Amino acid sequence: MPIKLPNDFPAKSVLEKEDIFAIEEKRATQQDIRPLRLLLLNLMPNKIDTEIQLLRLISQSPLQIDVDFLKLVSHTHKNTSPNHLSKFYLSFEEIKNACYDGLIITGAPVETLPFEEVDYWQELVKVMDWSQTNTTSVIHICWGAQAGLYHHYKVEKIQYEQKLFGIYPQRLNISHRLFRGFDDIFMGPQSRYTGIDESQIQEEQLRIVAANDEIGATILISTDDHNIFLLGHFEYDTDSLQREYLRDQQRGLATKLPVNYFEDEGLTKVTNCWRGNAHLLYHNWLNDVYQMTPYHLEDIPKLRAKKS
């Protein structure tokens, strides 16, 4: 939340240059508080696990947050009960005329398929196009990030010889308000079979915010700050990579041990070194979208039109 300061307070101009929200007394007395509205497009097979992971991260805000869950009707969901989806999830037709402070698009286990061959691709394209006018900000995660980069900015994905799997150090390349409070080098989970072709990134459209010398870019943000692309999984639980590894072994896949993860030969001891970063990122994001969004959500398309 913003800090209330007198207009002539010396620190105010310094904080403003650092993108720290500081408001004058007049605006503070006129501020109206409303719930922050988020939409979660959950493309993961086990939707309940992903719901818990992401809700845990956004629940630390002092703001009231109203969350809607979005499903794609062009896909048959095999790992989540139809009753859960019909009771708690909305279709795009039901929300297409609404506006939201923020949208989160999760990853999906379809990395090895060309984007156009994913059965729900055309429906996802409709959602991604809608998100550019009807939301203040969009977080794209893992495959969702690759899909967004491809659709919005024509950045193609590249196939790895082996699964990128483990906990990787990442260095901040630029200062950005969403990463205020982060260390210059921070850790985060990666679990994917594909990356992005960084040679196709146009500097006037995208900024590489964080990267690893070995695996390349890990976080990108559009130059208008609307689209955030997280190629990793800040939302993962401590044992998420462990469960993925054991699952892959049961399926006969040649997945190697996740790097920088297990601390013992019994593959049971793990220290979570990314939880604080995850909470900080989503806390910063919620504060950012709340300050940037008009009080009346229906004004978002007009504000987005001015920025485009």
Number of strands: 12
- Total separate domains: 1
Q: For the CA atoms, what is the radius of gyration?
A: 20 Å
So what's the overall shape?
A: globular
Structural class given helices, strands, pairing? alpha/beta
* Named CATH topology: Rossmann fold
Contiguous low-pLDDT stretches (5 residues minimum) are none
Helix content: 25-40%
Order of helices and strands: EHEHEHEHEHEHEHEEEEEHHH
The first-level CATH class name:
Alpha Beta
> What is the end-to-end distance?
27 Å
Strand content bin: 25-35%
- What integer is the average pLDDT? 91
Sheet of most strands: 10 strands, mixed
| The CATH fourth-level homologous superfamily | Class I glutamine amidotransferase (GATase) domain
The appropriate CATH architecture is 3-Layer(aba) Sandwich
Q: How many DSSP helices?
A: 10
**Lateral strand order in the biggest sheet:** 5-4-3-6-7-12-11-10-8-9
Active site: 142 (acyl-thioester intermediate), 233 (proton acceptor), 235
InterPro entries: Class_I_gatase-like, HST_MetA, MetA_family
Subcellular location: Cytoplasm
Catalytic activity: L-homoserine + acetyl-CoA = O-acetyl-L-homoserine + CoA
Give the topology, please:
Layout: E1 3-4, H1 10-17, E2 22-23, H2 25-30, E3 36-41, H3 47-58, E4 65-70, H4 82-88, E5 89-90, H5 92-95, E6 100-105, H6 121-134, E7 135-141, H7 143-153, E8 157-172, E9 185-196, E10 206-212, E11 216-222, E12 227-230, H8 240-250, H9 275-292, H10 300-307
Parallel strand pairs: 1-2, 3-4, 3-6, 4-5, 6-7, 7-12
Antiparallel strand pairs: 8-9, 8-10, 10-11, 11-12
Walkthrough of the structure:
By secondary structure, the protein is an alpha/beta fold. It has a single domain, classed as Rossmann fold. The protein has ten helices and twelve strands. The protein has helices spanning 10-17, 25-30, 47-58, 82-88, 92-95, 121-134, 143-153, 240-250, 275-292, 300-307, and strands spanning 3-4, 22-23, 36-41, 65-70, 89-90, 100-105, 135-141, 157-172, 185-196, 206-212, 216-222, 227-230. The strands form two sheets. The protein has a ten-stranded mixed β-sheet with strand order 5-4-3-6-7-12-11-10-8-9, with helices on both faces. Strands 1-2 form a two-stranded parallel ribbon. Helix 6 links the parallel strand 6 (100-105) and strand 7.
